[in-house]
Write a structure and sequence with these properties.
The complex is a heterodimer. Chain A is mostly helical. Chain A is 75% helix and 1% strand. In chain A, a hairpin with a 4-residue loop joins strand 1 and strand 2. Chain B is mainly alpha-helical. The longest helix of chain B has 26 residues. Classes of the chains: A mainly alpha, B mainly alpha.
C-alpha cells in the first residue's frame, strides 16, 4: 500500500535567480574540468553575464510581485517579496563587480583562475537563499553555502601565507557562530513548535508565553550567530585580520555581498518573525549599534594599513545599518535596504581601487602606497576621492542620503541618543577618509615607489561605475529611495 | 523505567563530553566522542526516533569519528602542542567567565521553564517507532524538499573548496611578512595580526 505523495507547489519563476547562480557555477565547473585550455576571459565573462542576467530578470519579477503580491512556496519554506528581490539585486551587482576586479587580479598574481568564480557564484546562490528564506533551517543552509564558499575564497591566494591565516581565523570563528545560530534555532523551535517563520510569528501573535525564557535565550543566540556574519561589535574581531589577508577582490564580495545577505537575514528573523518581541530585542540592538559605530570609528583612526582601515569602516557602516534596523518599522527597513545598496557600490568601488594600488603580490596596503597618487594616477585618485567622500557621508554623495535615512528612521522611533551617537561616530570616521585623501593629494611621493603602470580595465570600470552611481544617487536620490520604499519585506503563508 | 534509561544515558553523554575536553591524548578524545554519540543515540530511541538513532550510530559514531581518527593519525598523535603559551594575556580566565555565564543562562532557561518547555505542541505526533522512517522520508520530499536540494550546493562548495585548497602551485611563493620574520626571534607571540 503506497499512498501518493503530494509534492509542494513550486513557483519556478521566483527561483530563477537562485537557479541561475547555482547552475552557472555548476556549468563553469564542468566545462573547466573537461576543456584543457580555457580562454582566460571566459570564467570572469561567464560570471559577469550570469550576474547581469539575474539583474535583468529581476525587473519583470519586481513588477510581477508588485502586481500579484508576495508569494510563498515549497511548503512555505521560501518566500518572495520585493525586499528579497532588492537584496538579490545587490548580490548580483556585487558578483559582477567581484568578477570584473578578479579578471586582472588572478593573472597578475599568477593564480589558477576558475575556482574563484565557481565559488563566487555558489556563494551568491547561498545569499539569494538567505534573502528569501521563510524557514530557519533553509536560512541556516543558505548561510552555510554562503559562508563556506567565502572561507575558501579567503584562502585562495595560495601564494600568500596571510591569506591562509585569514581563512583559518574566519573559518574557526565562523564555525562557532554557526553553532550559536543553530542552538538559537533549536531553542526558538522548542519555544514555538516550528522553524517556519510564518508559523512562528503567527504563534507569537496569537499566544502569550507565560515562560518565555527559552524564546529569549534563543533570540539572543540567533543575534550572536547573525551578528558575527555582519560583523557588529562585539562579534567583529575577525574582520580586520580577514580583510587584510584575503585576496582583495574577495574582500569586495565579502564586504558588499555577505553583509547584504546577513542584514537581509537579520531583518527577516528579527523584524518580521520576532516582531512581537521587539521591546525585548530592541535595547540589545541599540547597545550593539552604538558600540559598533563608536568602536569601529575610533579604532579605524589609528590604523596604518588601508585594508584594515576599510575593514573598520565597514564595521562602522554595519553599525549604521543596525541603527536603521532597530527601528523595526517600514521606514527603518527601507532605509536599511537603501543603505545596503549604496554601501555595496561604495565598497566594491573602494576595493577595486585598493586592488589596483596593492600591486603585484597584493601586499602594499600601507598609506605609503597612496602617497602622491593624485599626481601618478589622477583619474583613479579622483574616483577614490568620490568613493571615500561617499563613505564619509558628505552631502551630494549617496552616502549622505542613506545615512540621513537611517538616522531619520531612528529619530522617528524615538531613539534620539542613538542617532546622536551615530552622528558623533560619523564625524570621527570622516577623519579616516580625510587622512587617506591628504595622503593622496598633499603628501609627497616617497622615493623609490615611482611605479605608475596602466590601470587594468576591469577594476577601472568597477571603480568608475561605482563612483558615478554614488554621485548620481547623491544628486538625484528619488529613484533609489522609491525602490527601497516599495521593497517592504513581508511574510506570507504559502 | 524511562527515567532510569534517561539518567543512565545522560550520564554517559555528559561524561563522554567531559572526556573529550579533558583527555590529553587526541585519540582518547575521539573515543570519548564515540561514547557521547552513542548516548545520544539511546536518547533518540527513548524518544521513539529509531531511524535517527540508527543514523546517529552509523554516520556519527561510525563514519565521522573514524574520519577524525584518520586525520589524527595522519597528523601524528605524538606531536603535542604546548598549551602553556598564552597568545593573549588573560584570555583563559575571561573565557571561563564568559563560558560560565552562558552555561548559567542556559541552565536558568531550563529551570525557569520547568512547567512548559515548549510553548506550542509539535505539529503532528511522531507516530509509533515503526512508522518513523516513512514519515521522515515523506517530510524530506514534501515539507523539507528545498532544504534537501540545497545541501547539494553545500556539498559541491565543500568539495570544490577542498580541491582548490589542496592544490600545489608551481612558481614562487610570496615571502613571509616582514613583521613575522623580524620579531620571530625574540617574541613569537606578537608576530601576528599587528600592523606597523
Amino acid at each position: 500500500m503506497i499512498a501518493a505523495l503530494t509534492t509542494p507547489y513550486v513557483a519556478w519563476w521566483a527561483l530563477v535567480p537562485l537557479i541561475t547562480f547555482a547552475v552557472a557555477g555548476f556549468l563553469l565547473l564542468t566545462v573547466a574540468s573537461l576543456v584543457r585550455r580555457l580562454p582566460a576571459v571566459l570564467a570572469p565573462a561567464w560570471t559577469a553575464v550570469a550576474g547581469l542576467g539575474v539583474l535583468l530578470y529581476l525587473v519583470p519579477m519586481w513588477s510581477r510581485v508588485g502586481r500579484d503580491g508576495a508569494d510563498s512556496f515549497l511548503a512555505g519554506t521560501v518566500g518572495v517579496d520585493r525586499s528579497s528581490i532588492f537584496v538579490t539585486g545587490i548580490l548580483a551587482v556585487a558578483v559582477i563587480a567581484a568578477a570584473l576586479i578578479s579578471r586582472d587580479y588572478l593573472p597578475r598574481e599568477d593564480l589558477p583562475g576558475v575556482e574563484l568564480y565557481v565559488l563566487l557564484l555558489m556563494s551568491a546562490a547561498g545569499g539569494v537563499v538567505m534573502a528569501s528564506a521563510n524557514d530557519l533551517i533553509v536560512l541556516f543552509l543558505g548561510l552555510e553555502i554562503l559562508s563556506i564558499a567565502v572561507y575558501v575564497l579567503a584562502a585562495l591566494h595560495l601564494r600568500r601565507i596571510e591569506s591562509q591565516e585569514a581563512a583559518l581565523k574566519y573559518f574557526l570563528l565562523g564555525a562557532f557562530s554557526s553553532a550559536f545560530l543553530l542552538y538559537g534555532i533549536a531553542l526558538v523551535y522548542g519555544a514555538t513548535g516550528s522553524t517556519n517563520m510564518v508559523r512562528i510569528s503567527a504563534f507569537l501573535a496569537q499566544n502569550v508565553l507565560v515562560d518565555d525564557a527559552m524564546l529569549l535565550a534563543g533570540l539572543g543566540l540567533l543575534l550572536v550567530g547573525l551578528g558575527f556574519k555582519v560583523a557588529v561589535v562585539p562579534f567583529h574581531a575577525w574582520t580586520p585580520d580577514v580583510y587584510q589577508g584575503a585576496p582583495t577582490p574577495v574582500v569586495a564580495w565579502m564586504a558588499a555581498g555577505v553583509k547584504a545577505a546577513g542584514f537581509a537575514a537579520l531583518m527577516r528573523v528579527f523584524v518580521l518573525t520576532l516582531g512581537t518581541y521587539v521591546s525585548d530585542w530592541r535595547p540589545a540592538f541599540q547597545v550593539i549599534a552604538a558600540a559598533t559605530v563608536l568602536a569601529g570609528a575610533v579604532v579605524a583612526v589609528v590604523q596604518t594599513d588601508v585594508k584594515r582601515m576599510l575593514a573598520y569602516s565597514s564595521i562602522v557602516h554595519a553599525g549604521f545599518i543596525l541603527v536603521g534596523l532597530q527601528a523595526a518599522t517600514d521606514r527603518g527597513n527601507s532605509s536599511v535596504l537603501a543603505y545596503l545598496a549604496v554601501y555595496a557600490f561604495l565598497t566594491v568601488g573602494s576595493f577595486a581601487v585598493v586592488t589596483v594600488v596593492s600591486g603585484t603580490g597584493d601586499a602594499s596596503h600601507g598609506l605609503d602606497a597612496y602617497r602622491g597618487m593624485g599626481r601618478r594616477h589622477p583619474a583613479l585618485a579622483g574616483v577614490f576621492t568620490v568613493l571615500l567622500l561617499g563613505q564619509a557621508g558628505i552631502p551630494f554623495t549617496g552616502g549622505f542620503v542613506v545615512k540621513l535615512g537611517v538616522l531619520a528612521a531612528a529619530v522617528d522611533g524615538g531613539a534620539y541618543w542613538l542617532a546622536g551617537v551615530a552622528m558623533l561616530a560619523a564625524a570621527v570616521a570622516a577623519f579616516v577618509y580625510l587622512r587617506l585623501l591628504v595622503a593622496m593629494y598633499l603628501e609627497e611621493v616617497p622615493s623609490g615607489t615611482e611605479t605608475s603602470g596602466a590601470v587594468p580595465l576591469g577594476a577601472l570600470v568597477v571603480a568608475v561605475a561605482s563612483a558615478v552611481i554614488v554621485l548620481v544617487v547623491g544628486l538625484v536620490p528619488g529613484p533609489l529611495l522609491d525602490l527601497a520604499r516599495d521593497a517592504v519585506p513581508v511574510l506570507v503563508a504559502g | 523505567m524511562e527515567v532510569a534509561v534517561f539518567i543512565v544515558s545522560a550520564v554517559v553523554v555528559l561524561s563522554g563530553a567531559l572526556g573529550v575536553l579533558l583527555a590529553r591524548n587526541p585519540v582518547h578524545a575521539a573515543l570519548f566522542l564515540v561514547q557521547t554519540l552513542f548516548g545520544v543515540a539511546v536518547l533518540f530511541v527513548l524518544l521513539d526516533a529509531t531511524f535517527l538513532a540508527a543514523v546517529q550510530v552509523m554516520v556519527y559514531a561510525g563514519a565521522i569519528v573514524i574520519l577524525f581518527l584518520f586525520v589524527i593519525m595522519l597528523l601524528g598523535v605524538d606531536r603535542a602542542d604546548d598549551l602553556g603559551i598564552e597568545p593573549i594575556a588573560g584570555q583563559r580566565p575571561l573565557a571561563a567567565v564568559v563560558g560560565m555565564s552562558l552555561a548559567g543562562l542556559l541552565a536558568t532557561v531550563l529551570l525557569v521553564a520547568v512547567d512548559g518547555l515548549t510553548g506550542a505542541p509539535a505539529g503532528t505526533p511522531i507516530g509509533d517507532a515503526g512508522d518513523n522512517t516513512r514519515r521522515l522520508g515523506e517530510a524530506l520530499f514534501t515539507d523539507m524538499v528545498f532544504a534537501v536540494e540545497l545541501t547539494a550546493i553545500l556539498l559541491t562548495v565543500a568539495v570544490v573548496g577542498a580541491v582548490a585548497l589542496a592544490r600545489r602551485l608551481s612558481g614562487p611563493m610570496q615571502p613571509l611578512p616582514v613583521v613575522a620574520i623580524a620579531e620571530v626571534d625574540d617574541d613569537p607571540d606578537e608576530a601576528t595580526g599587528d600592523d606597523s
